[in-house]
Amino acid sequence: KLSQRLQYILEQIPPDSVLADIGSDHALLPVAAVQSGRVIKGIAGEVNAGPLRAARKQVADAGLSGKIDVRHGNGLQVLNAGEADVITIAGMGGALIATILDEGQDKLSGVRQLVLQPNVGEDMLRRWLLHSGWVITGEHILEEDGKIYEVLTALPEAESSLSQEELYAPVQLEGGLALASDLLIRMGPHLVKTPNEVFFKKWRGEIAKLQSVLKQVERSELESAREKKEELRRQIEQLEEVL
Ligand code: SAM
Predict the structure, then answer these.
(1) Ligand 1 in reach of 87 Cβ (< 6 A)
(2) Which of 10, 19, 48, 144 to mutate to test the pocket of ligand 1 (most atoms within 8 A of CB)?
(3) Is the domain of 77 the same as that of 147?
(4) 111, 148, 155, 160, 182 from 107: Cα distances, Å
(5) Shared domain check, 139 and 74
(6) To test ligand 1's pocket by mutation, which of 92, 119, 120 has the most ligand atoms within 8 angstroms of CB?
(7) pTM, whole model, 2 decimals?
(8) 16-27, pLDDT tens digit by residue?
(9) Residues 57 and 126 in one domain
(10) Do 215 and 123 belong to one domain?
(11) pLDDT by residue (tens digit) across 151-174?
(12) Does the complex come out with an ipTM higher than 0.95?
């Protein structure tokens, strides 16, 4: 059975897709996606030998070697342009996901949807999407086994009914606060508008971390600590306003 995290990612893939799952590890996602009938052909990309072997075995054991191609290589290099219409990249840092997409720009033509699950550094990934012509059309945050995950779905700007301007337009919250784009990029433009319990938990946790850093800095006599303190207080205040 798939984890809730991978199951949610699977459900974002449109029916009849050709899926490329990059950093596929055991190829759990492409195998389940083909078994569900949602994906007609899958490509599992892996850069490391161990996970690559695990992916090959998983695909063979499922009897899906004719439908899922397991390929060895870095990022999108395993793809031919126009081959896949959906790309999933999950379980890595947002900066690494952004680098993989950026280095593989030439392979993105013809891709109609990205489903991305950064473990950390979501802001870096959102910034890459914003500057590279991909509109985030959906965001979800979930908790599983004590870990919090975010899943972002993005479409090419030309195919999205939502524009980047609309996505990152200031949001009026109940208290009247207009959220600046920087904060939206950090917290997630959709998540901010439709927050769930996990969202609140994540950001209360982030505030607690900032407060503990602030306490340490407050003990310092150094002149440079003053600016740092102000910056931390500003950040805490901003986040508290949203929650
Ligand atoms: N995507 C699976 C998931 O979400 O459950 C596996 C996540 S696993 C933590 C990350 C995988 O990405 C590892 O198997 C690693 O070898 C692979 N990986 C890391 N960098 C990569 C790259 N540049 N290209 C392809 N695979 C990569």
Answers:
(1) no
(2) 48
(3) yes
(4) 8, 30, 15, 19, 29
(5) yes
(6) 92
(7) 0.95
(8) 999 999 999 999
(9) yes
(10) no
(11) 999 999 999 999 999 999 988 877
(12) yes
